[in-house]
Amino acid sequence: MDQDQADELFAAFGPVRVKRMFGGHGLYADGVMFGLVADDEIFLKAGPSNAPDFDAEGLGPFAYDTKTGRHVMTSYRRAPERALDDPDEMAAWARRSLAAAKAGKTPKPRSEKRPRKNAAE
């Protein structure tokens, strides 16, 4: 997926940035990755708030095999086919996925600052 395709598909959602990653593309809004494109399929972030929507539609997760043979299931789920032709439908799914992605972000722990040693000491 290129930027022009994303702009068209997510027109009703708002600005989406497409970034290349691992042979696919990440989809970002508000600086948060809420979707990915792999093998020409779109997957959206699922979390406790929207996983039931994906389950109700039978939309499976993005999964891959590592070089060591381990099978990894991600929290990204296939976007519904009908949303690929309907920017308003895609916007609704994208909003819920962005909310799930934001809710799942945990802030990095702040390290405690140690007092600086005075150079004159």
TrEMBL record:
Region (Disordered): which ranges?
Answer: 95-121
Q: Which residues form the TfoX N-terminal domain?
A: 8-101
Q: Which InterPro entries match?
A: TfoX-like (IPR047525), TfoX_N (IPR007076)
| Xref: SUPFAM superfamilies | YgaC/TfoX-N like (SSF159894)
Q: Where is the composition biased (Basic residues)?
A: 105-121
Checking PANTHER family in the record gives: PROTEIN SXY
Which protein, by its recorded name, is this? TfoX/Sxy family protein
Q: What is the lineage of its organism?
A: Bacteria, Pseudomonadati, Pseudomonadota, Alphaproteobacteria, Hyphomicrobiales
